[in-house]
Design goal:
Blueprint (H helix, E strand, L loop, with lengths): L1 H18 L4 H8 L1 H21 L5 H21 L9 H19 L1
Helix pairs in contact: 1-3, 2-3, 3-4, 4-5
Length: about 110
């Protein structure tokens, strides 16, 4: 079941971090704070089902994921306001920090 939960979480992350970034949401996220919050909300609700599959979901975990995601992306946008290549160091740091937040909620 752990593998299924991790795959569900990874799919949610991929969907909202890469697929939806090619839509209007990717533009809104960089344009204004409500757009960034919408992105962070959609990301949060897309990665939380994996926690639910393991019976380890808690509201504080969703709040933690939402707030840290919004903060991390806000810093990334301030550092590099334009669209980044997937291999750009700022983008790699962004993804590693998101991964760290997911690991934290899986372990707590």
């Amino acid at each position: 079941m752990l593998l299924v939960a991790v795959l569900v979480t990874a799919y949610g992350h991929f969907l909202t971090e890469y697929v939806l970034q090619k839509t209007r949401l990717g533009v809104l996220k960089r344009k204004n704070f409500p757009g960034l919050l919408l992105h962070a909300f959609l990301w949060t609700i897309s990665v939380c089902p994996g926690l639910g599959l393991l019976g380890i979901f808690a509201p504080w975990k969703a709040c933690f994921l939402f707030s840290t995601h919004a903060l991390i992306d806000s810093v990334k946008i301030r550092l590099k306001p334009g669209k980044l290549q997937i291999t750009h160091p700022v983008n790699i740091a962004d993804q590693l920090l998101h991964l760290l937040t997911i690991v934290i909620v899986y372990l707590k």
